[in-house]
Structures are given as structure tokens and as C-alpha cells.
Design brief:
heterodimer, A: 125 residues, alpha/beta, 5-stranded parallel beta sheet, 4 helices, globular, B: 547 residues, alpha+beta, 5-stranded antiparallel beta sheet, 16 helices, 45% helix, rod-shaped
Chain lengths: 125, 547
């Protein structure tokens, strides 16, 4: 059974790219273009890993992350956060609180090989 | 003690010395006569004669000694000024020690010769005036001492009466004020220099009293704020009726220390200035602070540069972000195309290729905006362009995009009033304003708003002033950044914009000599308002200058 990855990103290019990348590596993929869609898909698709873009309109990535980690159905799903920001303080802006941190925070633009390896390690176990 | 007739012009008259010489001579003669006659005279007569003779000698000796002593300690000789007594012919009859030291023993010579080596009395001679009316007179003269030094003196002449009350001479007292005069001259030079500096220094300088009245100000203050003397400083600099809060002048009055602050002032021709102000206490002889000096430096240009730098900094950061996204798009497109080739999947190739095309277009947008901002060239103003038409164009451009994002774009445009403006610039300006508004709506964290509204207004009044307004009901600008005007806060992601939005808006507004302001309520929305004043028609290249 191939592992399932849910891609939550408001940019179409990212959804297409990551989708193609993961499918090429043998994963099954689903995409969502905002946080609200993403939560719905997380429940429906039941992914083994979620990639989450931080800066999104409508519902922010941080809020989405909070809800993913709060809902019992999705709490245990590993999340890889993707961000275009470089400064440490911009990751979550210090709003994590008592939530567990994401399994990985990856800066855009991604390095393909390294990224796949990282995802493989997280999803593998 | 002989009278020194040094030149042909001195007239020897019997001075005191001559009198004593005659006196002494006659005593000697008498002594000789007595000695010669002694044998013929009886003893009592001889004794009497001898006694008389000794008495006379004694008197002479006492006189001589007394005179010698007098010479040293008489108040006339102790005075640190020149004292001389002149007769009606201006001949010197008596002098004091100091006079003799600097001019020599010149009794019998005329004073104008002695003092000035002139054979004519001085103009306005105080001595002659005193001889005429018997009153004290004063004057200032330059005299030459016997070793050729010039000295400046203040002269006072007073009448000298004999026991019968007749004026027999005039006492002339001259005080050497050369040093004083030199200091006075230096002081005057310094004063002139200070006044020049006061007016030349490129700062606003004013001195206020305890009631905050301006008692002194320099040329720059007068030039930019009008006649400020006698008015309250807060009325002159700030057009206020009362003392400014945190007034540094007041603080200096109270604590006697130097204070500084940043202030905003309006000149008499309506310009706004950013100033750094220093206040310094000024104490009087008793050490009390009676005045405070206020010095202000114009930092308006610096502030503008600061603002521009901030904008550029944010624009660069925003651009880096967008470029990363574009890179991802390009890399993604390449990946999709390559893997599609490997699989012979034509549809996937098309999809990947489209990604590449789209992102290359985004790169060219960024480059265009960069060039717009970095090139220093004159904007191409054109006449008879209606801003209203440009607004309509932008409205149509964004109609599709806003619908997709659940945004209602309302365009309210007045009647077309053609005017002179920079068409590309104004088009860019409106585009960027709308883009920012779209981002504010898209990134609004308030999920209760199902839809958003953006209103674009544009109109030109009869005076030729164009007003462009873009209002959104999105996120609003938070309190923390509201002070830092034009922070590109909500556009850090903004896929619609290129990151240079506010920078471009600022440039275009400045090109047109216009103004931009905004009102924002966090959570309720933001309204940006741009006003562009009327502009003269541009001079076509190569046209004759008919003025």
C-alpha cells in the first residue's frame, strides 16, 4: 500500500510540483488549496503525512496547523511545514505555545533529493 | 633742572628751577659778602648776619628737601595719568611724573606740540574750551610719546583758579585708554562676527524668555517663519495657541539642562519640516536662567530618505520571497516536463511547460518594476489624459481575479476630466493600490466575512486636483505598524503584487507632487487616498521656449 501525502498549499504551482514529485517517488497524493479544504481532506483522505504551507490566505497556515494538532483524528499525522520566510522568529511567530512542533520545517526553494529523503524518513517509521 | 630748550621753538622762561638757582646764588653771594665784610663788622652784627644766613640756607634746604619729597609722593605724581597745567597760550606750566616719563620735561612748550608734534591746537581742544567757559570738558585724542609710541587717551580739562578766584590755567588730565580701546575694537569685531554666524548658521536659532516669547532669532527663522520677535514660540513654530506637550524649552527652564527632541513644524508658506530641536539654558550674572536658546536642524530630507530606505528594504525582502516562489514554479515546471518526457506523457509536458511560461512572465514583471524604481529618469508626462479612464481600465483588469477570490470590486469614477499626468505611472499606482487591497482581503484572518468589498474611486475636481481612493474591508493595518507609514506589512506574500508596490506608489505620488494618506481600523479595513495636484502641460521636446 503506497503511503499517502496530503499537500496543503494555496499556490497551484506548488501543488502541481509536489504532487508530481511525490507521485514519481511512489506516493499517493491529494491536494488542498486552503486551510479549510486542508482539514476536510485530512479527515477524508487520512494521509500518512501532510505538507503545509505557512503563508496562506483565508485561514493562515498557523491556524490550520493548530487545528490539525488539536483534532484527535489528525493529531498523530506528521506535518512538514513549508515556508518562504528565512528568519527564525517568523516560523510560527512564537505562537506554538504548548503544541508539539512540526516534524520538519523546510525552506523554499526545496532541494529535491534532500526533501524526498526527509519525507521518506518521517513517513517511513 | 635747567630748562631744556631742545628745539628752536621752545621759549626759555624762568622756571621754578631758575628761581631756586637765583636764590641759591644770592645766598652764596651774601655769604661771600659777609665773609669779606666780616672784619669790618662788629661781632653782634656778624652773629646776626650769620644766623640770618643760616636761616636762609635752612629754609632753602628745607624747601629743596620738601620739594624732593613732594616730587616723589605728591598725589600728582602718584596718579596713573598724565597731568599738566597749561596757561592761556597753551604753554605747559607744570607736569607730573608720569607725564615727564612719557613726554619728557616739556615745561614752556605748547601742549599740542608736546602731545601731538603739531604746531596748531587740536580741533575741539578741551583746554581751550575750558579757558572759554570755565567748565570741565572732555575729549578723546591720540598722542605720541617721546619714543614715538601712539597712545589713545581720554582727556579731561578743568579750570585752575588762584586765591583771588581768577582762572590762571587749565589742568589737563589724560588717561591712557589704549588697551581699553584695543579691547573695545576686538569686542566690536567679535560682536560683528557673532552676528554674522548667528545669521549664517544653517539652523533655526531663537532665544525665548520665561513666557516663551521670542526675544531673539536669526535670519533663517525670519525667512521661514516670518517676523517672530515678540511672539510666542509655539505660535510661530507650530501655529498653536498653547505650549506644546513635552516642550524642551520648558524643560530647560526648569532643570537647567540641555534637552533635545524631534518636532514637526509648518513654515509660513505651508511647508512641513521635520526638525531636531536642542534647548540650552542661558544664565545671567547671578546664575539665574532667564533665557533658553532653541536650535533646530532641518532633517526633513533625512526623514524622506529614511522612509524611502525602509520602503526599499521591505520591497527587497518581499521580492526575495516572490523570487523564491517563482524559482519553485520554474523548477517544478522543469521537473514535470522532464519526468513527462520520460513517460511520453504529452499532457503532463504541456502542463509543466505552462508552469514555466507563467513563471517567466512573473519574472519579467518583477524586472519591469525594478527598472521603474531604479532608473532615474524624468517621467513622461502627457496632457489631456483622464485619470478616470485609467481607473476604469484597472477595474476591468481585475474584475476576473477578484471574482475568483470572493471579492466585489466596485468602481466609482467621476466624469472624465483630461489633465496632465504620467499615464503609466498613474496606471501602476492604481494597480498597486488595488493589488494591496486584494491581498488585505485574501489574507484577512477574520473568517466570518464570507465576501469582501473593494471600492475604487477616482475623480478630478474643477480646480484640477485628482483624488484616487481605494478602500477595502480586509485585515486593516495593525496598531504596531500604523506609525511606520507605508510598511509593506500585508504584502509579504501577496502573489498578486511584485513586492515593490508601495515603493512604486510612493514614487508616482512624488513625481506628481501629490500626497498619500491612509485610514485604517484593524479588523475593519483600510482606505488609501491619493491626491494629485494640477500640473502644467509638459514642454514638448524641441519646442521653442516662448517665455
Amino acid at each position: 500500500m503506497p503511503k499517502k501525502i496530503l499537500i496543503i498549499d494555496d499556490e497551484q504551482d506548488m501543488r502541481v510540483y509536489l504532487g508530481a514529485l511525490f507521485r514519481q517517488a511512489g506516493y499517493e497524493t491529494a491536494t488542498a488549496e486552503n486551510g479549510i479544504e486542508g482539514l476536510r481532506q485530512a479527515l477524508a483522505f487520512q494521509p500518512d503525512l501532510i505538507t503545509l504551507d505557512i503563508m496562506m490566505p483565508k485561514r493562515s497556515g498557523v491556524k490550520t496547523y493548530r487545528e490539525l494538532r488539536s483534532a484527535p483524528e489528525t493529531r498523530g499525522v506528521p506535518v512538514v511545514v513549508l515556508t518562504g520566510l528565512t528568519r527564525q522568529e517568523d516560523f510560527f511567530g512564537g505562537e506554538l505555545g504548548d503544541l508539539p512542533p512540526p516534524e520538519a520545517v523546510v525552506e523554499k526553494p526545496i532541494q529535491r533529493e534532500q526533501f524526498l529523503k526527509q519525507v521518506g524518513e518521517i513517513i517511513g517509521g | 633742572m635747567a630748562v631744556a630748550g631742545k628745539t628752536a621753538r621752545s621759549y626759555p622762561i624762568p622756571g621754578r628751577a631758575v628761581v631756586f638757582a637765583t636764590y641759591a646764588a644770592s645766598i652764596v653771594l651774601l655769604a661771600v659778602a659777609v665773609l669779606l665784610l666780616a672784619p669790618r663788622l662788629s661781632a653782634p652784627v656778624l652773629a646776626l648776619g650769620l644766623a640770618g644766613y643760616l636761616f636762609l640756607v635752612g629754609v632753602l634746604a628745607v624747601q629743596l628737601l620738601h620739594r624732593a619729597g613732594r616730587r616723589r609722593t605728591h598725589w600728582q605724581n602718584v596718579m596713573p595719568c598724565y597731568l599738566s597745567v597749561q596757561d592761556a597760550n597753551l604753554r605747559i606750566v607744570e607736569t607730573n611724573e608720569k607725564f615727564r616719563r612719557d613726554f619728557g620735561d616739556r615745561v614752556g612748550e605748547q601742549c599740542h606740540w608736546v602731545y601731538k608734534r603739531s604746531d596748531r591746537p587740536c580741533a575741539n581742544c578741551p583746554v581751550l574750551a575750558t579757558f572759554r567757559d570755565g567748565l570741565i570738558h572732555t575729549g578723546e585724542e591720540t598722542v605720541i610719546t617721546q619714543d614715538g609710541q601712539a597712545a589713545q587717551v581720554v582727556v579731561t580739562s578743568a579750570p585752575h583758579y588762584d586765591k583771588q578766584g581768577n582762572m590762571v590755567g587749565v589742568v589737563e588730565m589724560s588717561t591712557n585708554v589704549t588697551e581699553l580701546k584695543k579691547l573695545q575694537h576686538e569686542l566690536e569685531l567679535t560682536r560683528v562676527e557673532y552676528e554674522r554666524l548667528f545669521d549664517l548658521v544653517p539652523c533655526y536659532i531663537s532665544v525665548q524668555d520665561r513666557d516663551f516669547n521670542i526675544v531673539e532669532c536669526n535670519e533663517l527663522v525670519r525667512r521661514d517663519f516670518g517676523e517672530a520677535l515678540g511672539q510666542r514660540c509655539y505660535s510661530v513654530y507650530k501655529r498653536c495657541e498653547s505650549l506644546c506637550p513635552d516642550c524642551v524649552v520648558e524643560k530647560s527652564f526648569q532643570s537647567g539642562q540641555v534637552f533635545s527632541s524631534e518636532e514637526i513644524s509648518t513654515t509660513q508658506d505651508g511647508r512641513t519640516l521635520n526638525l531636531i530641536t536642542y534647548s540650552m539654558p542661558i544664565r545671567d550674572e547671578r546664575g539665574e536662567i532667564t533665557r533658553v536658546m532653541e536650535v533646530a536642524t532641518d532633517i526633513t530630507e533625512v526623514k524622506q530618505l529614511q522612509k524611502e530606505l525602509t520602503l526599499i528594504g521591505r520591497a527587497v525582502a518581499g521580492m526575495a520571497h516572490r523570487i523564491k516562489n517563482i524559482l519553485m514554479g520554474l523548477e517544478g515546471g522543469l521537473f514535470v516536463v522532464n519526468t513527462a518526457f520520460a513517460r511520453n506523457d504529452a499532457a503532463a509536458v504541456a502542463q509543466g511547460w505552462e508552469m514555466i511560461e507563467r513563471n517567466v512572465e512573473r519574472v519579467s514583471h518583477i524586472v519591469k518594476d525594478l527598472l521603474y524604481c531604479s532608473k532615474k529618469r524624468e517621467p513622461e508626462f502627457k496632457e489631456n489624459v483622464a485619470a478616470e479612464n485609467l481607473a476604469r481600465e484597472v477595474g476591468e483588469l481585475f474584475a476576473g481575479r477578484t471574482a475568483k477570490d470572493d471579492i466585489d470590486l466596485q468602481v466609482e469614477v467621476g466624469p472624465s476630466r483630461p489633465r496632465t499626468l504620467h499615464p503609466d505611472g498613474v496606471h501602476s499606482l492604481i494597480t498597486n493600490l488595488v493589488t494591496n487591497a486584494i491581498d488585505a482581503c485574501r489574507f484577512d484572518p477574520d473568517e466570518s466575512k464570507e465576501r469582501h468589498t473593494i471600492t475604487l474611486r477616482c475623480g478630478t475636481d474643477p480646480a484640477g486636483v485628482t483624488t484616487i481612493e481605494v478602500a477595502d474591508d480586509g485585515a486593516g493595518i495593525p496598531e504596531e505598524v500604523a506609525d511606520k507609514v507605508f510598511q509593506d506589512f500585508f504584502s509579504t506574500k501577496g502573489t498578486e503584487g511584485t513586492g515593490l508596490g508601495l515603493l512604486i506608489i510612493n514614487r508616482v505620488v512624488e513625481e506628481h507632487g501629490g500626497e498619500i494618506t491612509y485610514r485604517s481600523t484593524p479588523g475593519r479595513g483600510t482606505t488609501f487616498t491619493v491626491t494629485l495636484p494640477p500640473l502644467p502641460a509638459p514642454i514638448p521636446a524641441g519646442a521653442e521656449d516662448l517665455s
